[in-house]
Amino acid sequence: MSQKTVRLTMAQAVARFLTRQMTVIEGERVPIFGGVFAIFGHGNVAGVGEALYSVRETLPTYRAQNEQGMANAAIAFAKASFRRRFMACTTSIGPGALNMVTSAALAHVNRLPVLFLPGDVFANRRPDPVLQQVESFGDGSISANDCFRPVSRYFDRITRPEQIIPALRRAMQVLTDPADCGPVTLSLCQDVQAEAYDYPQSFFDEKVWVPRRIEPDPDELAAAIATLQGAKKPIIIAGGGVLYSEASAELAAFAEKHGIPVVETQAGKSSLPHSHPLNMGSVGVTGTSASNRLAEETDVVLAVGSRLQDFTTGSWALFKNDELKIVGLNIQPFDAAKHDGLPLISDARVGLARISAGLGEHKADSAWTERAKAAKAEWMEAADKATATTNAALPSDAQVIGAVQRTRGGRKTTLVCAAGGLPGELHKLWQAEEPGGYHLEYGFSTMGYEVAGGLGVKLARPERDVIVMVGDGSYMMLNSEIASSIMLGAKFTIVLLDNAGYGCINRLQVETGGANFNNLLRDTHHVELPQIDFAAHAAAMGAVTRKVGSIPELEAALAETASEPRTTVIVIDTDPLITTEAGGHWWDVAVPEVSEREQVKTARKGYEKALMSQRFG
Ligand SMILES: Cc1ncc(C[n+]2csc(CCOP(=O)(O)OP(=O)(O)O)c2C)c(N)n1
Ligand SMILES: [Mg+2]
User: Fold this and answer.
1) Which of these CATH numbers, 3.30.450.40, 3.40.50.1220, 1.10.150.50, 1.25.40.20, describes 218-378?
2) How far are the Cα atoms of 459, 516, 615 from residue 528, in angstroms, in the given order?
3) What is the pTM of this model?
4) Could you report the per-residue pLDDT of 167-199, keeping only the tens digit for each?
5) How far apart are CA 325 and CA 340, in angstroms?
6) CA–centroid distance, residue 541 to ligand 1 (Å)
7) Ligand 1 atom at minimum distance from 498 CA
8) Where is the Thiamine pyrophosphate enzyme TPP-binding domain (predicted)?
């Protein structure tokens, strides 16, 4: 057999292959890779760098400022694209590569696709040890990039140019697989990047990837239907899988037809519009009073596309009904069977439609549905109170959320956040209007995701207003992709809440009996307290900036800067001690069994009592 071949370096083969992978969005064929974020060094500039230059017209390369930042932006791009499109990230060896490991874990936890292409040490080992090679004394095959293994869904090290053929095919399979989806790392030895090989021409044929929709197994489906038919007080937990399956319409139809209230996880929030009468809002540790009251009583939970992490289950103490059954509608068996769930392995959209057809006209007890609606009305009153305007010198996070919400106008908005006190407040209070309008990285809750995430969301959804809400601590950890957003003309708005420290951890510390210690700046070991001028800092990177002194000033600044073409940073001082008291649930954070502090002893007593309501198994 004579195959047509083309002589390319391994890196050129990678670049060409990436340009040929396509998908279909709204009937239109588009490249599945939205681009490549790159920071070059000796480990990738000559190989991958030269190759990316040759395809720059079809596969854009973006220079970032920090490898973790660019990887977070790439991951946000995939999340905002509902995993239908994604990006690649290339780095040098050593520190550049390892700067992406945290992001790999972030993508792994959140089940988000991203292709990492870190450079690696020489496969031929002739110049060893090359600059930035860590050198394991006991194992010649280990390099720094082995750190990616536990946080990649698929890892491969390319030590010969032809290995890239099966590796890239496997990479595409993982990146586009709704169940397996996550980070892929192809560690590219720097000498091999530059080696030529006669690649089969067919390797570069255009390929179109469309999401696979798995149908449920008939027996599992029958069991799920029977369980729901027997339910007296059913609820639906909407997780991220609802959004990734683009199943919002089916979810709304299901809830309405069968009269079942819906509660939302962080990843699942925006599955239904907040105004939908059966959307009870957030559930669990940061849940609304409405969701949590129903969750306490429910006997059957239909968990759709949820990982059922501790924030959702209230550290597994939220559900109080002895008869509780969980139906795990999930594309991933690992998640479907959690907490003794009755698995229903299926795409969310398909699964909801099949269960609904099986349920026919079956409806939950109307008293249960009506109670849900009343509980929601009660919650909305509390939420409106928490977010109402104020002239307080130091407003609460909730009051800032209210201001941001009021100034959205009719524009389509995506709210981005990840860590600190804000995620809990936003989970309760943000009023998402449509799927994807709420973008929280709360699987890994990585400080520093926010600014980079805003960039990724804007690249994925340029037509939307992207608003990043971030604490001073998270901003300090990673903010430099503001410069990238200016370079790329990718405007978003950052509302920076400066409470002079790690407010949420300080509160957690005090709740667990600890002294105010090492969280708020005033409680740290210091010679002088830093007076950080965040507006000046962001302005130095080219952002439009404002420092505002009150909620009305914030609203005015948001309105006034809405049409600015450049990324805008608005800074407001906030109170580190206030959070929304309504709603919420206990969270399992272990309190010391012995301590000299009376406050710890008291907290431990409360902790032991709370543990008694935790389910086991
Ligand atoms: C990379 C990383 N380091 C540490 C933490 C633990 N942590 C969670 S929130 C937080 C403080 C966040 O401070 P800030 O952004 O100012 O928000 P605030 O708590 O004040 O609302 C810390 C240290 C984390 N989530 N991520
Ligand atoms: Mg703070």
Assistant:
1) 3.40.50.1220
2) 40, 18, 48
3) 0.98
4) 999 999 999 999 999 999 999 999 999 999 999
5) 8
6) 23
7) 16
8) 420-572
